[in-house]
């Protein structure tokens, strides 16, 4: 099996045929595609987009009036990699007033005015919602598949994605999106028969289609991204990553796309010397888009990398996935970052401490990441993290607050341990994962249809967690985590 797949991979990498489902190239090659926003600092927003030619001066005009975009920000870095048809552009919009409606226009002969709301300052106690999607993937003509993984049709790109559709439909109900890993599933080109001899192009076509489909959401809301296993390589077959074409190894597209748009850390406003010192240390150790943090209103959010850069990391050298990617920092850098960053938080200002990564360690089924648990669980517990968000398993799951395999006896009523959720049922070619048995601490699971989660930051002590069915908006599970502060 592996031999056959390797042979296909080599044939695919040669790119003999060109009949993959690429989107049409616009005749004006400065036309922006694949737009994506992110919070860059308390007063900055980054705009990322791709073009079908290299830009010598990538610019964005912006302002608070749609008809007078008085400010302009530019960048001269427009980057690509072998096998990509597009160039990735990124610009940082500076000097923004907090929580304010802005309009922006990517400078091009063929672009329109879009909008975003600038970040809410840390300490702003206005309630807000966030959407969580993981394991999203591209959808075909009729909506990809609403059934289980046995019945996978071929990918036909079209804007029929039920979870992206739900995010678009509810765009006014949440203020940003958290997506820790597994975006396009470009490395699953191998699952579509007609792509088998043309992997190199099919991989790029899936990326282009996916990020085009996502643009109506990611181009108007900050879309905060960290890596998953499907960003690693041209495919998931163990021991064969050296066969991948140059450009489709080692998280290349992910780095090109999000490396300049994700934040590093937000500066500390604390008067405490020790919080300041930890914030400085965290800023030096952050490594976006792999591990980084940001603040928004009542929340401090840390996004981290469950794929590489810790002991026995699954996608690292000799890791269980045998993908041989990374490292992206020096040994121990990521965990040192997490310790410093979590120790820099003023919990009066941002009471909610949220972490988001790709692979879970509390999960129904057999996808618990032991090395992740060993590397991260105690750091999160000791820092008083409230909620840990994961995906990787393709369904929705909620767990009681847990530590070292034991349920916190307080449950959702002021626990010491972090609560755990998996929001991995958003979509993708691999379909949903069926769960067959229960596990310690599980309080909810859903695998019948695509789903995603939302958080409601109500006040400093109450955090709503909801799971929704993507196709209908049906509320599947609703809970409130209570934390006593002060
Ligand atoms: C302008 O952009 C739209 C999509 O935003 C595209 O369909 C159209 O082909 C583009 N026009 C030109 C002249 O490139
Ligand atoms: C936040 O989510 C809750 C629960 O779904 C909803 O009732 C509320 O309207 C949302 N807030 C906004 C501003 O949309
Ligand atoms: C933490 O934040 C609160 C609220 O903004 C502020 O009053 C307090 O001085 C801060 N504490 C430290 C140690 O910075
Ligand atoms: C990976 O495994 C090989 C063979 O067992 C070993 O020689 C090498 O030191 C290992 N590398 C790491 C980084 O663990
Ligand atoms: C992956 O990229 C990082 C940094 O860009 C580099 O340090 C590392 O050696 C690369 N890993 C492999 C396996 O090529
Ligand atoms: C697992 O058991 C708990 C406690 O009995 C229950 O609340 C939960 O719904 C169960 N989970 C599943 C997936 O059946």
CATH class of the largest domain: Alpha Beta
Bound molecules: 2-acetamido-2-deoxy-beta-D-glucopyranose
Order of helices and strands: HEEEEEEEEEHEHEHHEEHEHEEEEEEEEE
Strand content: 25-35%
User: What gross morphology would you assign?
Assistant: globular
* Rounded average pLDDT: 91
Calculate Rg over CA atoms: 21 Å
Keywords: Glycoprotein, Hydrolase, Signal
EC number: 3.1.3.2
Domain Purple acid phosphatase C-terminal: 417-478
Organism: Neohortaea acidophila
Structure write-up:
By secondary structure, this protein is an alpha+beta fold. It folds into two domains: 43-117; 128-482, Purple Acid Phosphatase, chain A, domain 2 (4-Layer Sandwich), CATH 3.60.21. It has seven helices and 23 strands. It has a seven-stranded mixed β-sheet, with helices on one face. Strand 3 (58-63) and strand 4 form a beta hairpin. Residues 141-159 have low confidence and may be disordered. The structure holds 2-acetamido-2-deoxy-beta-D-glucopyranose (6 copies). Residues 250, 324-328 line the site of one 2-acetamido-2-deoxy-beta-D-glucopyranose.
Q: What's this model, at a glance?
A:
This protein has seven helices and 23 strands. With 486 residues, the protein is α+β, with helices and mostly antiparallel strands.
Index terms:
486 residues, alpha+beta, Purple Acid Phosphatase, chain A, domain 2, 2 domains, seven-stranded mixed beta sheet, binds 2-acetamido-2-deoxy-beta-D-glucopyranose
């Amino acid at each position: 099996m592996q031999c056959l797949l390797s042979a296909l991979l080599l044939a695919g990498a040669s790119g003999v045929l060109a009949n993959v489902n690429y989107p049409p190239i616009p005749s004006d090659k400065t036309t922006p595609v694949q737009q994506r926003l992110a919070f860059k600092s308390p007063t900055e927003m980054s705009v990322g987009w791709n073009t079908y030619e290299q830009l010598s001066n990538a610019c964005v005009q912006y302002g608070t009036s749609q008809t007078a975009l008085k400010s302009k920000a530019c960048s001269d870095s427009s980057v690509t990699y072998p096998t990509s048809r597009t160039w990735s552009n990124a610009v940082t919009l500076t000097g923004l007033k907090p929580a304010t409606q802005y309009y922006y226009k990517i400078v091009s002969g063929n672009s329109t005015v879009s909008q975003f709301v600038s970040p809410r300052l840390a300490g702003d106690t206005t309630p807000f919602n966030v959407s969580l999607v993981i394991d999203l993937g591209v959808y075909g003509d009729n909506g990809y598949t609403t059934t289980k993984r046995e019945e996978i049709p071929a990918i036909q790109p079209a804007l029929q994605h039920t979870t992206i559709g739900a995010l678009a439909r509810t765009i006014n109900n949440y203020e940003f999106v958290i997506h820790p890993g597994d975006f396009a599933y470009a490395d699953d080109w191998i699952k579509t028969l007609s792509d088998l001899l043309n992997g190199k192009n099919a991989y790029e076509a899936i990326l282009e289609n996916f990020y085009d489909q996502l643009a109506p959401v990611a181009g108007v809301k900050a879309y905060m991204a960290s890596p998953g296993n499907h960003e690693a390589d041209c495919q998931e077959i163990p021991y064969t990553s050296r066969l991948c074409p140059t450009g489709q190894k080692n998280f290349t597209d992910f780095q090109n796309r999000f490396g300049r748009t994700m934040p590093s850390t937000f500066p500390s406003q604390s008067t405490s010397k020790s919080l300041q010192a930890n914030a400085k240390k965290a800023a030096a150790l952050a490594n976006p888009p792999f591990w980084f943090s940001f603040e928004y209103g009542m929340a401090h959010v840390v996004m981290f990398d469950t794929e590489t850069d810790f002991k026995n990391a699954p996608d690292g050298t000799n890791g269980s996935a045998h993908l041989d990617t990374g490292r992206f920092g020096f040994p121990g850098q990521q965990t040192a970052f997490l310790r410093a960053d979590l120790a820099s938080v003023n919990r009066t200002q941002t009471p909610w401490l949220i972490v988001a990564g790709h692979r879970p360690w509390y999960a129904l089924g057999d996808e618990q990441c032991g090395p992740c648990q060993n590397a991260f669980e105690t750091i999160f517990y000791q820092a008083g993290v409230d909620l840990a968000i994961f995906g990787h398993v393709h369904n929705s799951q909620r767990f009681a607050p847990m530590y070292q395999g034991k349920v916190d006896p307080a449950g959702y009523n002021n626990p010491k341990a972090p609560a755990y959720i998996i929001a991995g049922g958003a979509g993708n070619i691999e379909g949903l994962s069926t769960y067959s048995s229960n596990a310690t601490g599980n309080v909810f699971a859903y695998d019948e249809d695509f789903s995603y989660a939302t958080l409601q930051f109500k006040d400093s002590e109450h955090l709503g967690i909801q799971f929704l069915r993507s196709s209908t908006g049906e509320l599947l599970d609703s809970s409130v985590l209570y934390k006593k502060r002060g």
